[in-house]
UniProtKB/TrEMBL annotation:
InterPro entries: ARM-like, ARM-type_fold, Ipi1_N, TPR_TEX10
Chief localisation class: nucleus
Residue intervals of the Pre-rRNA-processing protein Ipi1 N-terminal domain: 140-222
Family: Belongs to the IPI1/TEX10 family.
Keyword line: Nucleus
Transmembrane regions listed in the UniProt entry: none
Species in which this protein is naturally found: Dictyostelium firmibasis
SUPFAM superfamilies referenced in this protein's UniProt entry, alphabetically: ARM repeat
Pfam families given in the database record: Ipi1_N (PF12333), TPR_TEX10 (PF25781)
Record localization: Nucleus, Nucleolus; Nucleus, Nucleoplasm
UniProt-recorded name of the protein: Pre-rRNA-processing protein Ipi1 N-terminal domain-containing protein
Length: 957
């Protein structure tokens, strides 16, 4: 059989395959031909370009505020979270967005503050924490009621996390706007109580179930292993639940404490009470442009009327684990009345609130375990919170209920549950800055203050042994130990323990209460402990302020008959007054508030006439505060001048400090010397110098200052002004000249008023010698150094001399002038001549205008014999043809002629010139001028012609 032919497996080539043409169909177009008949068209796709520039302000993701606010309504939690974060970024980049769209932003944010997602809520809290500091009360006030409604809603939410986050949001508002949020928190206090009841209730159930399961005494071996595991797991769950409940209650209490501190006006017993009163007094007496300032602060009322019912918290009163409603809360048909909100406005409300809250606080205190020696720092803080709330409530209840059975029951409960754990120490005094020691000392301080509130305002003598030596004895011992420094180790006291000292200083108000009922031995011991504590406090520390305030309180209660005969109390008053000026000097200008407190305390003591002996004893101690001179040393043989902190303090404190001097029975020499130094200082303002001048004058008028001391002060003040002028290194500007003139005018007015009761001899005689010395210095300085300021100094001294004479009575003035010493008259005459002659050198030689001749002419007119005028004219003529060379002679001739012309032109001396003795002198001087002046010089010839014309006009020739 032959082989079959092999099969063809090769596929035909597909290249160049030609399709068969079919009948009745058009041939296909050639694929190799380029089609050129296509058309193009633009497509518009709006909103698809993500990098498009937008006209509005955008955040880093190019989203506007409108876009972000729209996304807050999105169903997706992540989108809402990103939207809140985007708004925060947008406001950070463009703060103006917040102020322009505040309403839209707030109305949208309030809708998500109670969002079910935790991250969204926290982002809203962060955003509000950024927004609120940027707004003032006026801007945010319309939105506070709206946020309050949503916060109240969150506090009653079914979800626990939402309830707790609403408290965090409330804390943010309290931190920034406590006054505004307090007007809109009507329902919050009951909600807090409800939250605490819920949490404590769940914890109680867990505890009961745990104790029930563990109360059986079945041996472990007889119980199956599976049941043992189940029992251990259930107990661990119960313990975890209890710890979580405890933490939640503490968190709620922290928020509640922050709110009730705003709602309850806690009486202030610290030094800030005095400081606030001082600042308020200063604000109320503020003067602007001569008018009293008006308080224009606005008061914003709540949007809804507040209805107060004292029995609001009655539904929370628990008695034998059963809730009871009082009869007044039931309608006639037996239904419960609707409860209206309140905000602790009355004492009864505070009482109801305290009655509801205190059992919860006691339970929490016992649960935290204060007797546990291994207690943690977190638990310590929680214990401090409990004690702080109790101390606030007891303090607020004391004013109205201190004598009631309710308050007495509070005292018994406090002794039963809290005093048994006192004192409470965790840590060591060798490490006073450790957190545990600080918190434990704070707890002890708060517990002592709370116990002291139960003593009442004025404890009776009958129950002293029952109180001070009874249940209060541990607290009294703690106060004395704390003041004696037993809470801080002596080895580290210099550098550490400042916070502990602050807690100790909070106990000082208690000492004031218990002093009247302590024995003399106890009083002396505790007052000596206070002195020891005060000396250990740094001058700039807060405890030092508290000590200053306590000294003020001790001074105030000095009139107490129970303490008037206590020697230790008298000693501490003297010590306290003596320590205040020293502290004032130590503070310098670094703590104006404390300086203000000390000065006000000194003023209050000075105004009390019964304490004048104590007040006079501190005058020497107060001198270094103004100015003092150190002891002589080889480098400073006359002692070094040291200015105190007075000049570096604000003006209002300087004014008050000067007022303290008014109440001394007399000012000693060193105090007057310090005031003179203040007036001489370049740092003294014109207002301060003016007040010192008025003060010294008033002290003389009331008899506190002698005439000799007063004249010495006036002389020294005048010489201090003239010494500034005589200094070549000082160039007086227009402002400083005005200040000096105002000082001299006030001095002249004061001295002129002295003439009403004193002779001119008693005033001018002490002035003569220092004025003669000063006038000679002025003349020498004016003549040799060409110091223009010396002319002002001459006018100042002459003004002071003129103020001693009687005005508008020539006969009396003539007698008074004759009483002057010849040396003073001669010195004044020479000084006037030098002033007139030398002042010509400072102006153009062709001008005859001299600075000021008014005071000089009045001084010349004092001499009715005209001898002073004649001597001045002769001294001027004596300068003719005087000089070492011809140029100097010519200059002196010109200066002499100009000086004469200036005198002849004065209208004030016209009548004096008409007298025969003066006229003859003038004629002889004119002849001397004609002989001395060279007519070859055109300048001198012109001046001579002018002089002759003035003489003819003078004598009408």
């Amino acid at each position: 059989m032959g082989r079959s032919a092999p099969k063809k497996t090769l596929q035909p080539s597909l290249d160049f395959k030609v399709k068969k043409k079919k009948l009745g169909r058009k041939p296909l177009p050639n694929p190799n031909i380029t089609v050129t008949t296509f058309k193009s068209k633009a497509l518009n796709m709006p909103g698809q370009n993500l990098v498009e520039e937008k006209d509005d302000l955008v955040n880093h993701r190019n989203l506007t505020l409108k876009d972000l606010l729209t996304k807050l309504n999105h169903y997706n939690d992540q989108v809402k979270k990103d939207a809140v974060t985007g708004i925060r970024d947008l406001i950070s980049k463009h703060p103006t967005v917040l102020f322009v769209h505040l309403g839209a932003i707030m109305n949208k944010l309030v809708e998500v503050i109670n969002d079910l997602d935790k991250d969204v809520r926290h982002c809203v809290h962060n955003l509000l924490g950024t927004i609120l500091p940027m707004l003032d009360e006026i801007s945010i006030s319309p939105f506070i009621p709206l946020f309050s409604v949503y916060i109240n809603s969150g506090m009653t939410h079914l979800k626990t996390s939402v309830r707790l986050d609403s408290l965090r949001l409330l804390d943010i508002f309290i931190d920034h706007y406590p006054n505004l949020i307090s007007r809109s928190c009507h329902q919050m206090i009951p909600n807090y109580i409800d939250l605490l009841k819920r949490v404590s209730g769940s914890a109680t159930i867990a505890t009961i179930s745990t104790s029930t399961s563990s109360s059986a005494t079945v041996p472990t071996g007889s119980v199956p292993i599976s049941q043992q595991k189940k029992s251990s797991s259930s107990s661990s769950v119960a313990l975890t639940s209890k710890a979580s409940s405890l933490h939640t209650r503490v968190m709620i209490l922290k928020s509640l404490f922050k709110l009730i501190k705003v709602l309850l006006n806690e009486p202030d017993l610290s030094f800030s009470l005095l400081l606030n009163r001082i600042h308020k007094q200063r604000e109320n007496t503020q003067i602007i442009d001569g008018k009293m300032a008006i308080d224009c602060s606005l008061t914003y009322q709540a949007y809804n009327d507040r209805k107060v019912f004292t029995d609001l918290f009655s539904k929370f009163l628990v008695r034998n684990n059963e809730q009871q409603l009082p009869q007044q809360q039931l309608n006639s048909d037996g239904t419960v009345k609707s409860l209206f909100p309140t905000i602790l406005e009355t004492q009864e409300e505070v009482k109801q609130f305290s009655s509801t809250l205190l059992p919860i606080l006691i339970d929490l205190w016992l649960e935290l375990g204060p007797s546990n020696p291994g207690i943690s720092f977190q638990v310590l803080e929680d214990l401090e919170l409990v004690v702080s709330i109790i101390q606030l409530l007891v303090h607020c209840l004391k004013e109205k209920f201190s004598t009631t059975d309710f308050y007495e029951q509070l005292r018994k409960d406090y002794i039963k549950f809290f005093s048994v754990h006192f004192p409470f120490y965790v840590g060591s005094p060798s490490n006073p800055d450790s957190k545990e020691w600080i918190i434990s000392c704070s707890i002890n301080s708060l517990m002592t203050q709370t116990a002291s509130h139960f003593l009442g305002y004025s404890p009776s003598i009958n129950n002293v042994n029952e109180t001070i030596n009874g249940w209060y004895q541990p607290f009294l011992e703690f106060i004395e130990d704390a003041l004696n420094g037993k809470l801080i180790d002596e080895k580290v006291e210099g550098t550490k323990g400042q916070i502990i000292k602050s807690h100790i200083s909070n106990l000082l108000w208690i000492v004031k209460i218990i002093l009247p009922i302590l024995s003399s031995t106890q009083s002396e011991s505790i007052l000596n402990a206070f002195i020891s504590f005060d000396e250990k406090c740094h001058p700039h520390s807060t405890p030092k302020k508290a000590c200053v305030f306590f000294i003020k309180e001790l001074i105030d209660i000095q009139s107490n008959p129970l303490l008037s005969n206590v020697k230790s109390f008298k000693n501490i008053i003297e010590w306290g007054l003596a320590s205040l000026p020293k502290l004032l000097w130590k503070l310098g200008n670094s703590d104006n508030d404390t300086s203000l407190m000390i000065i006000n305390i000194l003023l209050s003591v000075g105004r009390d006439k019964s304490k004048i002996k104590h007040y006079d004893s501190i005058q020497n101690a107060l001198v270094p505060f103004f100015f003092t001179i150190s002891k002589p040393t080889p480098q400073h043989p006359n002692g070094k001048q040291i200015y105190g902190p007075f000049l570096s303090l604000p003006l209002n404190i300087q004014f008050l400090a000067l007022n303290t001097l008014y109440y001394f029975s007399s000012l000693n020499k060193i105090m007057i010397r310090s005031l003179i130094a203040i007036c001489r200082s370049n740092k003294s303002s014109p207002e301060i110098v003016s007040i010192i001048l008025d003060l010294i004058h008033n002290l003389y008028l009331v008899g506190t200052l002698s005439l000799s001391h007063y004249i010495a002060f006036c002389i020294a003040t005048t010489l201090s002004v003239t010494s500034k002028d005589n200094s070549n290194d000082i160039i007086n500007n227009e402002e400083s000249i005005k200040e000096q003139e105002s000082i001299i005018k006030k001095l002249c007015w004061n001295i002129s008023s002295l003439r009403l009761s004193n002779s001119i001899d008693s005033i001018l005689e002490p002035m003569s010698e220092p004025f003669i010395i000063e006038l000679k210095k002025i003349s020498t300085n004016f003549q040799d150094n060409n110091n223009e300021n010396s002319g002002d100094s001459l006018n100042y001294i002459l003004s002071l001399i003129l103020s001693c004479f009687t005005e508008n009575n020539n006969e009396i003035r003539e007698k008074e002038f004759k009483s002057l010493s010849n040396e003073l008259i001669t010195t004044v005459t020479n000084s006037i001549f030098i002033y007139i002659f030398q002042s010509i050198k400072f102006i153009n030689s062709t001008s005859t205008k001299i600075y000021d001749l008014n005071i000089i002419l009045k001084t010349i007119q004092l001499d009715n014999s005209n001898q002073m005028l004649i001597n001045i004219l002769n001294l001027i003529s004596s300068k003719l043809n005087v000089g070492s060379n011809q140029v100097e002679k010519n200059n002196n001739n010109q200066y002499s002629i100009l000086s004469l012309i200036e005198l002849f032109k004065s209208k004030e001396l016209y009548e004096n010139f008409q007298l025969s003795n003066v006229k003859s002198v003038i004629n002889s001087i004119v002849k001397k001028v004609e002989k001395s002046v060279s007519t070859q010089l055109s300048t001198e010839k012109q001046l001579l012609d002018k002089l002759l014309s003035e003489v003819k006009l003078l004598f009408n020739e």
